[in-house]
């Protein structure tokens, strides 16, 4: 008679085979873990979904997480915005919510004449340190969007990308951006199309009609679609109100 292979199996497996509900429980746990793991693994997406300063500092501090965060699609987005804005040939530029400075770097690289004043604002000191290393000729300041220390300055181009969808008081944020805009200048704002966006790290979701109505009191000039149509690029002209 051939010998049964069962005694060579671990005791827990042999017992589980004899308890009718254990295999089902094991399969349930395995399925649950398979769904749970992607949402909780250490990644820039999972960290930033918390939408906190601490979360973004953690990403900006880590070379590996930052490399993941600055994926080709994000860098292509910066390049697309920079290409459009460079046509305005602004002499004075500010990026509010500049993060690690990649958009400003891309914009300056595309301009035939270097702007005389380039400023980046972000509440993350870790991000600002990265930005200073990336674009040493610019001035980078750690500050809150609602309490900007440069209120007396005016800029031909005020950039604010991937910010308004994260903030609790977006109308006050837009007011602050408009105060930075010089006569004849433009404010350029991007947000995802809320009709296509459901990411947990965002708190505001506007479709095109809603975004147009939201910006109408702020001298909205027009809204373009970029990134293949999934993102709005809105233009404001505050001095034309």
Radius of gyration of CA atoms, rounded to a whole number: 24 Å
CATH superfamily of the largest domain: Vaccinia Virus protein VP39
User: Which residue ranges are poorly predicted, with pLDDT under 50 across at least 5 consecutive positions?
Assistant: 1-6, 29-40
Listing every helix as H and every strand as E from the N terminus to the C terminus, the arrangement reads HHHHHHEHEHEEHEHEE
Mean pLDDT equals 88
Beta-strand percent range: 15-25%
Whole-number tally of structural domains: 2
Q: At CATH's second level, what is the architecture of the largest domain?
A: 3-Layer(aba) Sandwich
Number of strands: 7
What overall form do the CA principal axes indicate?
globular
Largest sheet: 7 strands, mixed
As laid out across the biggest beta sheet, the strand order is: 3-2-1-4-5-7-6
The secondary-structure class comes to: alpha/beta
Number of helices: 10
């Amino acid at each position: 008679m051939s010998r049964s292979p069962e005694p060579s199996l671990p005791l827990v497996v042999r017992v589980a085979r004899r308890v009718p509900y254990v295999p089902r429980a094991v399969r349930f746990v395995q399925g649950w873990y398979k769904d749970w793991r992607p949402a909780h693994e250490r990644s820039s997406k999972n960290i930033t979904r918390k939408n906190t300063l601490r979360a973004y500092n953690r990403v900006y501090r880590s070379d590996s997480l930052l490399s993941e965060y600055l994926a080709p699609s994000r860098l292509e987005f910066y390049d697309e915005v920079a290409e459009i804005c460079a046509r305005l040939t602004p002499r004075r530029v500010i990026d509010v919510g500049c993060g690690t400075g990649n958009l400003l770097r891309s914009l300056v690289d595309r301009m035939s004449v270097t702007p005389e004043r380039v400023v980046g604002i972000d509440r993350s000191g870790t991000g600002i340190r990265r930005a200073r290393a990336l674009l040493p000729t610019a001035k980078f300041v750690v500050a809150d969007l609602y309490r900007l220390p440069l209120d007396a300055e005016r800029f031909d181009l005020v950039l604010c990308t991937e910010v308004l969808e994260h903030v609790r008081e977006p109308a006050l944020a837009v007011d602050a951006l408009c105060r930075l805009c010089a006569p004849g200048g433009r404010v350029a704002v991007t947000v995802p199309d809320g009709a296509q966006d459901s990411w947990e790290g965002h708190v505001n979701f506007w479709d095109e009609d809603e975004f147009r109505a939201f910006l109408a009191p702020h001298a909205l000039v027009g809204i373009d679609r970029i990134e293949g149509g999934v993102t709005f690029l809105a233009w404001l002209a505050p001095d034309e109100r």
